[in-house]
Amino acid sequence: MPEILSAAACNLDSNILAACLPLMEESRLEAIEWSFDALFNVKDIPSWFLELLTAYSHEKRLTGHGVFFSLFSGKWRQEQADWLKRLKKINSTFRFDHVTEHFGFMTGKDFHHGAPLNIPYTPTTLRIGQDRLKRIFEACECPVGLENLAFSYSLEEVKKHGAFLEQLLEPVNGFIILDLHNLYCQIHNFNIPFEEILALYPLHKVREIHISGGSWQPAPDNPVKKIRRDTHDDAVPEEVFALLEHTIARCPHLKYVVLEQLGNALYTANSKHLFYTDFGRMEKIVQANNKIHKAVSLQTFLPLSPIINGAVIEDETLNAQQLELSRILESAHSHHEAIYRLSQSSLAHSAWQVEEWEPDMIATAVSIAQKWKK
After folding, report:
1. Which end of the chain is least crowded, N or C, by CB within 10 Å?
2. Architecture of domain 5-315
C-alpha cells in the first residue's frame, strides 16, 4: 500500500458520485472521506451507497468528517449528545480509519443551524475543546482530528491558530487536517507569506491534507480588494496545487490527500471534467512524493493514556456571548451596523478582542452567518 493515499470527499450526492465514478472505475480512488452527520436525518440510505462505504471500510480506507457537532459551544446541548450516540452506532458498522471535525462553533440559536465561526483562544475554550474531543474519541475509538480554519477575524488569530490546535489535540494525541485552500484564504486575506504561516503549524501532527476551490467576495468598502472564501464551489486554484507540492514532504505522518468539492458545483459536464483533472494533478503530486519518501509512519495518533471523561465542561458566559454574536451577525443590515452592535455588546473589551477585528472580515462573517441562516 502506498504511503499516502489519493482520496476524495464522497457523499450521498448524485453530482459528487457522478464525478467520482470514473475514478472508481479506473481503481484510482484509493480512499473516501464521508461527511457522516449529513445523513443523520436521512431515513432511507440506498443499499448501493452502504455497499460502497462497506467496501472502503473493509480496506481501512474510509474516514469520517463531521460538520455539525459544534466543538466549542459554551453550553452542552442534547443535540451534541445525540450526535455522539449516532457516531458510535455508525462507527460500529463501518469502522472509520479516523474521524475529524471542524474547528469553531456553529452560529444559530441551537448551534446546529448556522455558520462555523472562530472562538477566542482562552483557557476556557481550550478546556471545552479538549473535553469534546475526548468524548468524540470515546464514541469512535479511532484517531481524532481537527481541520484548520479558513476564516479568522484578525492576523493575530491567524498566528495563534496552529499552536492552539496542537494544545487542543494533546489529550487524545490527535491530528490535524491541513486544508491548503483554507491556508490560501488566510494567506490572501491577511497578506501573510506561505512560509511564515506554514511555520506556525505543527506539521508532525498532520495526518490528512485537503485541497479544494473557492470564491472571491468584494470587500464592502474597497471595490479593488477581494476576500477569499472557502466555498468549495470551484476547481482547485493553481496556487493551492503549488502549496501541496511544497507541503506534502514536510508532513512525516501524512496518510491521506483529499480533493473536496460541493455537489452543487458539479452539475455540468465541464465541472465534472475539471474535478477529474484536478484529481489527476493531485494524484500525480502524491505519487511523485511516494516514490521519493518510502518510510512508513508508525504514528497511530491514538491516546497515549486512557481517556477518562468526567462531568461535561460548560461556560455560561461563553454561551451567552456566542448567542449574542450569532444574533448580531445574523440580523445586521450591514457590517457597519454589526461593528457598532459588537462595540455595545458583552463581547466588547473581552477575550474576543472585537476591537481588533478587521472590518472586511466582520463583513464576511455577516455574509457567512446570514447565508447559513437561510
Report:
1. C
2. Alpha-Beta Barrel (3.20)
